[in-house]
Write a structure and sequence with these properties.
single chain, 4-stranded mixed sheet, 13 helices, membrane, metal-binding, transmembrane
Length: 299
Amino acid sequence: MTRYAPDRGLTTRMVTTMFFIGLLYVVFVGVLIVLLGRAWPMVLLIAGGLFIAQFWFSDRIAAFSMGAREVTPEQAPELHGAVDRLCALADMPKPRVAIADTDVPNAFATGRNQKNSMVCATTGLLRRLGPDELEGVLSHELSHVAHRDVAVMTIASFLGVLAGMMTRVALWGGFGRARGSDNNGGAAVLALLIPLVSALVYVISFLLTRLLSRYRELSADRAGALLTGRPSSLASALTKISGEMSRIPTRDLRQAEPYNAFYFVPAFSGQSLANLFSSHPPLQKRLDQLGRISAQLGQ
């Protein structure tokens, strides 16, 4: 337990999401086994291997994908100092601290539990924020670790990764040959069904993770603001980072977009459908909540 404010709504949503993701996972693997016949050992091997890799190495995979490198207190004294203060305030183990060399101002946390977690800030964020604003952002990210929702998001996103991989393998034709079918028509139907099933699974898992992701960001804002007692600092950081996003080169934003679910503020390369299915709630909704918390703390 930590001193971060508990959130029953978040806990309920995490349990519900994991239940439906687990059910969808079982159904998906079962359908693939039925469709692929004698290739079922390959299905179980791929599904099991990917799940283990995603769960045990998720923090390393995420850190590598987003260009994070772990830093020592001597290399980043201000960042380590802020994390030290917040961890002492929250009474939680200190995670590994990392920096990502990119001008996109953002931060994220990864890890399957508090003992195997990492918090990362980008060089763009460190250049733009003051000490109080930085602590507000880090408090938000550390709440994801304390509430364990970062681990749930990692596991929940695994099914979409698996569905995409199964689709690619099916299109390569490997499963059709493994089934041993000499009927060209049957092989064609199989090659059509697997991508359709995979696409359906991907869409459902995507919607489930998006519903959880939006709520968990509001929960992290609330918990982080209550821990520091300075919701105005977090609101200032949100406003500053969101405003700076429009000045970042489109190429850099496109590279960051696939990892929006883990970031403090989403990176969008333009007004597109991605905004409609954002992993984060609208900026104004986050600011309104912080305004209410500020008013409550001032009473």
